[in-house]
Amino acid sequence: MTPKIVTWKQVRHHWEIYLLVVPTMFLIGLFQYYPAASGVYHSLFRWNGADISEYVGWRNFGDLLGSTEFWDSFRLAFIMGAWAILKLIPPIIVAVCIHRVASDRLQFLYRALFVIPMVIPPLIIALIWRSFFFEATSGYLNRFLEATGLFGLLCRADQWFHWGGIFVAGVKPAWLGDPRLIITSVVIWGFPWVGTFAVLMHLAKLGGIPKSFYEAGEIEGANWWTKFTKIELPAMVGSIYVVLVIEIINTIRDAGSILALVGIQGGPGGRGTVPALFMLRKAFFEQDMGYACAVGLVLTVVVLSLQKSFTVAMEWETQPKTSRIAVRVFGLAVGAVMLAFGRLVPLGWILLLASFPYPFAYRLLPGAVRRPADRLLIRLGIIRLPPSVIVQRRDPGVYIPQKTVRQAAAAAAAAAPGGSVPVAAPSTLTVPAAPQPPPGRMARHLLEGGKHGFIWFVLAFAFLPLYLMAIVSLKTNQQFYEAPARLSPPLHWENFTAAWRMIAPTVANSVFITISATLITIWFSLWASYFFARVKAPLTNFLWNAILILMMLPTIANLVPLFRLLGDLQLLNTLTALVVVSASGGQVYAIFTLKNFIADIPQELFDSAEVDGANHFDQVRVIVIPQAGAILGTVGVMHFITEWNNFLLPLIVMRDHDRLPVMVQLLRMSGEYLKFWGPLMAGYALASIPIIILFLFTMRLFMRGLTEGMH
């Protein structure tokens, strides 16, 4: 669709178009940009959030950079970020296995089965891991290590590598009680780390692969690994990049899961403190809100830098030479500063190694060194063959492994005069044909069985928290300690009655908050998306860039000034505060998604409507809403789930017990009613049921909308 251009002279005749975006910009400006500006301002003050305000200039930042606790929190965040790269592997494998299932019905069954455990609120998963898996006396993790003999191996490894007695025979490790195990605990929790969003993103990308690609691969004898590396993995590059960026950045700006696992103090010795948790502790426990605003500003700078770095890395070949030089210089400078001051030394080395100008340095080497290095790099496949080297196949249409091509090229390079690859005159490499016979019947059965076996293996681990929640909810404490992992009669259904009495008012609060915020988000973002997609008027680019910037800003970095803003507006301890803040933040992603979809609607539909005298409001009602039903449903479901699972802002804003959302109540129950396992697990189950039901009924709509939004 071509946007309609409105010039400054024409604005007076089309002024009503701005009414479409005014509500959105008002909410975003008040609850997103104003707290951000307030945080920048108050970071220069010694401020307790109320009556004490003293200008100190850059002292907060100086104290921050000299704080060992602050640097330790970033160290933990980057450790978790490094592990996030490994956690990308299970969702990729699961998505590929489901995509390769021949039966459409079986594919839908697998998707539905994966959705059920993965839509359980993350807070509940964290609390289950804290209560059941990490418990020292009878926790499932210690039981598993002992039953499999892995605990003995860990004890011997402790002696060999001098871990300091973390694992000692006869002593069960306290995963969340030992400072030396805190980092390990916050990394491994949630195994096998298969998230709904990642799997659905990958499946949406895989679903767009034409069948002709697979048919061509079959003709050339491609095996299962070649199909993955040459067809499926390239198709998933975009979704893998999005998931990777989200995971790494969330480890820096997220505090909810860590708070649920180890508490606001970060566990013993504060070893589980991430930057966002460090900021919250400074603000609401030590009442040093000016210092906390400085932490939030540093968080914002780090997150923006990471996002820019990822973007440049993904588009490195297309970046201007000046931009690449600037990025290398910046990386070298930051890495050198980290090493010089002894802060985040491993990250400093990574920056130095990643930013080093290897091509420039390689060209400075003498020829006697470069020639054998060329042969080695070609053999390893690190550098590409020169354009003059032509690979000729003996049999057209026969698949030749790339490894064979590299070996032939390296052999030709070694045989050339001087031992270098010919680059002046074209040469021909004749590569022997290596036809790949189709796999036999036994191999096909093994591949098919392995595919389904892996899916069910991951499903078993994914369903484990749900299974434990279900069976423990029907037990007394005595039954739980006697048989914690199996169902034992009699069944105590009265646990659900007791749990409902504890959470019923908070469930009603969550229903009101989520439905209200979702409806406001969808309604306002629909009109704003139409504005950005349909019209190119004065200030359009400025307003659009203002929204794009918010997509990169960490929301938690503005939590302290937002808390003070809600206090000034007399909105603290009100459901209205949670609704309007959620709607303002949710519109950013909703507008970005809807705008791309509306822009793909054929221009002819809008032209015909204008000929019939339809105004912009009529065009949205008659054209956009019927066309965008699936994507609106997707945006609504995602926002509903996000808001239902939110507990960090309500935990800080709400004080009245009768106005708490259900997730905050569950967090309180996990401490207050920790000994009553049956009612506690029943409460977890009741809080998960609305999300599970919602997703099951909207799964087809959600998947269709996600696919349309990504293509």
Concise summary:
The chain is mainly α and 711 residues long.
**Poorly predicted ranges (pLDDT <50, ≥5 residues)?**
385-403, 417-435
Structural class: mainly alpha
* Helix amount: 55-70%
Q: Please list the strands of the largest sheet in the order they lie side by side.
A: 1-6
Separation, N- and C-terminal Cα atoms: 15 Å
* Number of alpha- plus pi-helical segments: 33
Gyration radius (Cα, Å) is 29 Å
Whole-number mean pLDDT: 79
Instruction: Give the tally of β-strands.
Output: 6
C-alpha geometry: globular
Strand-residue fraction?
under 5%
Q: Quaternary status of these chains? A: single chain
Tell me the layout of helices and strands.
Blueprint: E1 4-5, H1 22-42, E2 45-47, E3 53-55, H2 59-65, H3 68-86, H4 89-99, H5 104-118, H6 122-133, H7 140-148, H8 150-161, H9 182-188, H10 196-207, H11 211-219, H12 224-235, H13 237-253, H14 256-262, H15 275-284, H16 289-314, H17 321-341, H18 345-355, H19 358-363, H20 367-380, E4 389-393, H21 402-415, E5 427-431, H22 441-472, H23 477-482, H24 494-534, E6 535-536, H25 540-552, H26 559-568, H27 575-599, H28 603-611, H29 616-627, H30 629-645, H31 648-653, H32 662-672, H33 677-710
Helix pairs in contact: 1-26, 1-27, 3-13, 4-10, 4-22, 5-22, 5-33, 6-14, 6-32, 10-13, 10-33, 13-16, 15-16, 17-18, 20-21, 22-33, 24-27, 24-30, 24-32, 24-33, 25-27, 27-30, 30-33, 32-33
